[in-house]
Each structure stands twice: as structure tokens, then as C-alpha cells.
């Protein structure tokens, strides 16, 4: 098998037009991928980035795909197969967030859209490509699922986002165990759970005590290195793991007191504005 899972691989990145998606794409190009496919709902942005990255000599193609629609994912994979082949590496990066009390979420525009983009899209896409990944054991395969620390710890004003990421983590970890149980060890799934990242998606949010806002560069480096090594779960920064441990051992009332009054977890979204 090829030691580096990116070298000579076809890498597919959702939400690939900007932010962390763009940084993953640049890393794939630098690691000598055979080709990189970028999916994004913003056709102009993804086309422009693909043209820019193609100057490196690596073939990079941008596709306009709305990952909230299962039919577009299926059609996108068929188009990708015809153009470049089947992906060896998939980075499920696309995501949205709505910061508000649950009762202010619109059932379709907020609840359904968040679950479709943050969770179902990764499931639908992985279901499309996994049979071919299983069948081809000639090289290592990778799936990187971008979850969130919000999927490990409840937080006010992000109920639907948290639900989508809790679901992502549970699904991702279960598929990882299934692949190992059935002997498909050439495929590694990594789930990345960062706290707030300064991409603009969480504009206005404040990091809890001892929890810095991660730069996109720091976050993507941690996720990328975890994916290369097949690390099952990557948590950043270290306080994410600490919070999980405290929440697990403390009575609910005690944890709520610490989260609200000491660590300031429960007030971290009070001034959230998002991308606007």
C-alpha cells in the first residue's frame, strides 16, 4: 500500500470553496494528490478556487453541488466518476449553524436544513462512495468527518446544531467500528471535534475559560494530521476532552453550575452573530 494516503489519491472535499474547505484543498495539492474535487453551493467561488489551485500542476475541479439534496449528491458522484474516477479520500466539511433558542428555529429553513447539510449529507455521500472504497484495498482510504465540540457537550442557543453534530459523531464512530469488524482495515475514519474556529461561521461567539478560539490553520492542521494517521477521534483544544470528562463524572446540577458560572460554557453563544 501507498504509505501516504494522499499521494496519488483523488480527494473530494465538500464545502470546498472557502474557509477550512479551501485549506484542506491546499493541503491535498501540497501533498501531491492525483486530483482534487471541490464541491460547494457557490459555483463562482468553487470554480475560481479550482482554477487557482490547478496552477500547481495538480488537477483540481470545482463542482456546484447542493449537499442538502440527496439527488444532487448522487448525480455529483456520477459526474465525478466520469471525470476523475472514484474518490480515495472524502472530507465531509460542509456545515451551517443557527444560533438561537430552539423555539426560534424555522422547521424547514433552520431545523431541516441544518440536519440535511451537517449530518445527512455526510451519510448520503459516504454511502455513495463506501462500497467502492471497500472493494479497492490496493491503497489506504480515508474519510474525515468534521463534527464539533458541540456534539460532545450541550450548550444553550445551538440546540439544532448540537443535535446535528451529536448525530455526526455517533454515526461516524459506528461506521468506523463496522469497517474494522468486517476486516476493511484499509479504510480509516477520523471524526474531528473542534471548539470555536475563527472562520466567521461563529462570529461573536466567545471561547469558554481556558478554551481559545482556534484559527482555521490550527484546526485544519489537527484534523489533517489525524486523518493521515487514521486517528479515530481528534478533539481540539484539550479543554474539550476535559469538559467531556467532567460532564461524565459530575452530577448534572454541579456540572451546570461550573459550565454556567466558572467555565462560561453556557454563555459562549450569547453574542453570536454568525456570518450575517
Structure characteristics:
276 residues; alpha/beta; Rossmann fold; seven-stranded parallel β-sheet; 8 helices; 7 strands; 46% helix; SDR family NAD(P)-dependent oxidoreductase; Sc_DH/Rdtase_CS; oxidoreductase
Give a short overview.
The protein is built from eight helices and seven strands. With 276 residues, the chain is α/β, with parallel strands linked by helices.
Helix-strand layout with pairing:
Elements: E1 10-14, H1 19-30, E2 35-40, H2 43-54, E3 59-64, H3 70-83, E4 89-92, H4 107-135, E5 141-146, H5 159-181, E6 187-194, H6 216-229, E7 233-236, H7 238-249, H8 252-262
Parallel strand pairs: 1-2, 1-4, 2-3, 4-5, 5-6, 6-7
Helix pairs in contact: 1-6, 3-4, 4-5
What does this 3D model show about the protein?
The protein has about 280 residues and is of the alpha/beta class. The chain has a single domain (about 10-260), classed as Rossmann fold, CATH 3.40.50.720. The protein has helices at about 20-30, 45-55, 70-85, 105-135, 160-180, 215-230, 240-250, 250-260; strands spanning about 10-15, 35-40, 60-65, 90, 140-145, 185-195, 235. Helix 1 (about 20-30) crosses helix 6, helix 3 (about 70-85) runs parallel beside helix 4 and helix 4 (about 105-135) packs parallel to helix 5 (about 160-180). The longest helix has 29 residues, at about 105-135. The chain is globular. The mean pLDDT is about 95. Keywords: Oxidoreductase.
